Amino acid sequence: MSTKEVYTSEKRGSDETGDGTKEKPYKTVLKALLVSGEPFPSLFVDGQDEQTPYDAIAKAQLKKQTKLYQQEDEDAAKRQQNIEDAKKIKITLDKSLPTAIPIKLRDSKEHREKRVSIKGWVHRIRKQSKSLLFVILRDGTGFIQCVLNNELCQTYEALLLTTETSIHVYGTIKEIPEGKSAPDGHELIVDYWEIIGNAPPGGSDALLNEEAHVEVQLDNRHIMLRGENTTKIMKMRSVVLQAFRDHYASRGYFEVTPPTMVQTQCEGGSTLFKFDYFGEEAYLTQSSQLYLETLLPSMGDVYCIAQSYRAELSRTRRHLAEYTHIEGECPFITFDDLLDRIEDLVVDTCERIMKSPLSQYVYDLNPKFKIPTKPFKRMDYSEGIKFLKEHNITKDDKTFYEFGEDIPEAPERAMTDLIGEPILFCRFPKDIKSFYMSRCPENKEVVEAVDMLMPGVGEMIGGSMRMHDYDELMEAYKVNNFNPKPYYWYTDQRRFGSCPHGGYGLGLERFLCWLLGRYHIREVCLYPRFRERCTP
Ligand code: 4AD
Predict the structure, then answer these.
(1) Distance from residue 287's CA to the centre of ligand 1 (Å)
(2) Are 340 and 362 in contact (CB under 8 A)?
(3) Using CA positions, which residue lies closest to atom 21 of ligand 1?
């Protein structure tokens, strides 16, 4: 026996962080043997009780562990030999074959029976035998199963290939035999391949998997985005944006791109993000509405798709600190026209989405999706108060909401889910709504405002008619304690040919949650921003 002593403890030890000392023992005897090598040191294991924390290992146990060690040693040698053998196998590009046509995977169907070359990322690997390897390749436009036979899967690179490695494959696309399945009903019979960029052992699993903690998933959002579901969501985000733009173009709206660094507020001081703008106080915009209003006299109906910011303190499944805001503004309309336009926007955009080539993704993610039908239920706030009472939806202290009180998110959602269809929720008490909203001509206590409420999601659109009378607006600044000075350009709209007008804002992420049946708003963001999360 050697005089060196190595300690192990099943109770207190660790094979990852231990060093074999009394203070930091290894967990297993096998680990101690593998680290020490031969000749073996004197080994100690857990003692009988607290007085004798360690005992010398029993002979029988040592014998058993030595056998395991030898087995492991042989396996390691075999693995090393395989690697050495693999290093000797070299594959080459056969120049006598027909020239490979470089393609993207979306075009693979048209290239059946042709020799092609494809660059992409290893999505999944399945080793069938020593001479057969399946690689599912992904290139952002589609997937294909690549078949690597014989030497092609016996090289050093093939042996160590991991998911997320980028590769270049050459081969012929063949329809798959009946009874077998693969994406698009065909596969690529590879005749040559090479690595473009390696990935760490274990591929993306080295960083996260489906069971990973939410914060770990968010830290690794850049890798999460490579997943199948997330990719579908991000592609639908693109399709949805295009559908909104197509809707607006077909209805004669112009798109504008207002600044997002501003010196005025639109939706209340409590959610303003302040920052230092070359020594002056400025804010990240909460809404582009005020700027859209300034374009009505020159461009008529306008819209924008821009980022809006809200310093929301609470982390809910519907609130972001930064979101994509789709806003429209229209001159010379009535409140009823505004409601019709909101309905048209939602229904027509959904129809466009469901006619797009990727519409299947909506059903993949949300099998129950149905395009809503016009007209939407229209309901006044005062009816909402009644509804809450009739359905016994109360505040925490069991009292009822009364006219004049803001209906918070939870009871509003409870009502929406009970009704189970889109609601244009209208005419709120003036004191709970924004400074710029115009009063209802028939009842000056309420404003011509609307929230579109959707089952499962709650408020998806907020809109209103705007005060167009100069004096009324000046009074509103006063009541809300605003200094009118920074708003001079907004006020001027009421001096230089004012007109009745209205508009709305739709939160793209809330629309996506509704369309794609997602529970949490962070699932539909590229890199979500909310309290304590500004990375990556
Ligand atoms: O109801 P909001 O605050 O209305 C406005 O900003 C108006 N100035 C818009 C206009 O009339 N042009 O916000 C409009 C929509 C909400 O219905 C919601 O969909 C979304 O913006 N939204 C948010 N989405 C995610 N996270 C947040 N913190 C959001 N705040 C509002």
Answers:
(1) 7
(2) no
(3) 507
Ligand 1 geometric centre to CA of 318 (Å): 11
Class of domain 101-197: mainly beta
Q: Do 5-87 and 228-524 show the same overall fold? A: no
Alpha helices by DSSP H, listed for 3-122, are: 29-36, 59-88
- Quickly list H helices, 89-195: 156-159
Best residue among 266, 287, 466 to mutate for probing ligand 1, ranked by most atoms within 8 Å of CB: 287
Per-residue pLDDT of the chain (536 residues; tens, 9 = 90+): 457 899 999 988 999 889 999 999 999 999 999 999 888 999 999 998 888 899 999 999 999 999 999 998 898 888 888 889 999 999 999 999 999 999 999 999 999 999 999 999 999 999 999 999 999 999 999 999 999 999 999 999 999 999 999 999 999 999 998 888 888 999 999 999 999 999 998 888 888 877 889 999 999 999 999 999 999 999 999 999 999 999 999 999 999 999 999 999 999 888 999 999 999 999 999 999 999 999 999 999 999 999 999 998 888 999 999 999 999 999 999 999 999 999 999 999 999 999 999 999 999 999 999 999 999 999 999 999 999 999 999 999 999 999 999 999 999 999 999 999 999 999 999 999 999 999 999 999 999 999 999 999 999 999 999 999 999 999 999 999 999 999 999 999 999 999 999 999 999 999 999 999 999 999 999 999 999 999 99
Beta pairing partners, 329? 302, 503
Domain boundaries, the chain: 5-87, 101-197, 228-524
Question: Would you say the CB of residue 523 lies under 6 angstroms from ligand 1?
Answer: no
Are 317 and 519 in contact by the 8 Å Cβ rule? The answer is: yes
How far is it, in rounded angstroms, from Cα 170 to Cα 119? 9
Is the CB of 435 inside a 6 Å radius of any atom of ligand 1? no
Fold entry, domain 228-524: BirA Bifunctional Protein; domain 2 (3.30.930)
- What whole-number distance in Å separates Cα of residue 31 and Cα of residue 18? 10
CATH class for the region spanning 5-87 = alpha beta
Residue with tokens 């400025």: 282
